[in-house]
Amino acid sequence: MTTEGRRAPGPRGIPLLGSLPQWKARTAEFLLQTQRDHGEISRLQLGPVTVHLVTEPDAVGRVLKDNSSNYVRGTLYEQFRTVMGDGLLTTDGELWRSHRRTMQPVFLRGAVAAIGPNVVQATQEMLDGWEEKARLGQPVDLVTETLRLTLVTLSRSLFGYDIRPQSRVLKEVVDNVIEVMFKHGTVSEMLPEWMPTKRNRLIKRDRQIFTRLVEEIRRQHADTGEGALMALIEAAKDPVTGRGWTDEQVRDEMLTLYLAGHETTAVALCWTLVSILLNPSVQEELDAELEQVLGGRIPEPGELDSLPYTCNVVDEALRLYPPIWIYPRDTVAADELGGYHIPAKSSVLLSPLASHRNPRYWDNPEAFDPRRFTPEAVKSRPRMAYIPFGAGARMCIGNLMALMELRMMVAMINQRFRLSLVPGNFLRYGDSSISLRPVTEVLAIPSSRTSGRTAERVA
Ligand code: HEM
């Protein structure tokens, strides 16, 4: 492979810091501006670090699939590691492969359909709580509600565990974890782990909370046998030692799944609901489809294919607001992407947010339009122009589960309630954070659907 390519264009930045100030101030806007000004492969200087932002679809395909062995987890994933330990998200090589193989069966299509009743139950519990708010004309915070909903669903579905009594504590832990993982460049981050800095105390406390939780879930599984993934994990054998996973390995994988699986899905659901209520024509078309196909019944996972518009609404929300909106890789050897030289041991940044708003593939990219996902429209675009779940071997293990949950939840919420945003809501995203979570709460007032039928309840 030749690595003679040219130097990629990019913003000039200022001496020593390069573009770091803009990056820190408004990361999302800076990325979009860079793509507009310098194209689909650009070179950013962030302090001492050189990073290439890559959104050109063939180049994205090369990084994630065709030459993926040259693009490994890197510096940012080290940050994750201090908190999550060695789980699917942070490891490479044989350890990753064998753990992924062990857990994959629970995330295949047939197995995912089996968690439908958990999705229905958790969504109904949330919506039952909204009845009182609707009666009093009071708002719900969509961020808090969706986080709780997806946490409860994930915990029951994968681990057979009812996490409701601990959901408040866990929310706090997750918020801390995100804060810790994304506090870059502070002095405290550079001090060794054993020093009692505020950051290190928080990490230790959060890991202890998770360790206790995992112990309780495992005890319960031993008694009841509940939890499809728990059963696979407990039966797993390490390919090298032939022994079961260590307690630390079990904890790290469970922690990874709790963290990677619920916040992402919640963020997607929150933006989907906001997008629907900001676009009355979408709301109308969605209502019409739900009424025509379901007539008030709760959907089964197996019939989601007969709700194409509902599916496309979710697809479009994942385009405009991809929960994992940036993720990096580090190069092993030098490479060439789109004719540009990518040095060895440098970072490459993929950004679903920038890819999904690239005007070359998306007309009027800022507009919310589910029609972009009709089968014909999808065929007309390069596959790698749309990467909410990544691609290749490291594609999100939970993508089918997330899509099923989102489609069911969107259908059920819209069957029972109308939402209206409380005026003055501040719909901002894109600070340096793990997900594209709205920066503040999103308050919406639910009102029960008076016209049309109310979705049936499961006893
Ligand atoms: C809308 C919801 C979700 C989105 C947008 C999302 C997005 C992503 C993306 C982009 C990656 C690839 C990261 C990379 O290549 O560096 C990823 C990986 C991963 N996701 Fe998701 N995810 C979602 C839901 C879930 C769920 C429900 C689970 C599990 C219950 C999950 C577990 C994971 C894990 C374990 C990985 C690492 C996979 C590996 O490297 O083998 N995610 N996710």
From TrEMBL:
Positions contributing to heme binding: C396
PROSITE patterns (UniProt xref): CYTOCHROME_P450
GO molecular function: heme binding; iron ion binding; monooxygenase activity; oxidoreductase activity, acting on paired donors, with incorporation or reduction of molecular oxygen
Origin: domain of life: Bacteria
Alphabetical UniProt keywords: Heme, Iron, Metal-binding, Monooxygenase, Oxidoreductase
Required cofactor(s): heme
Family: Belongs to the cytochrome P450 family.
Protein name, entry field: Cytochrome P450
Organism: Kitasatospora viridis
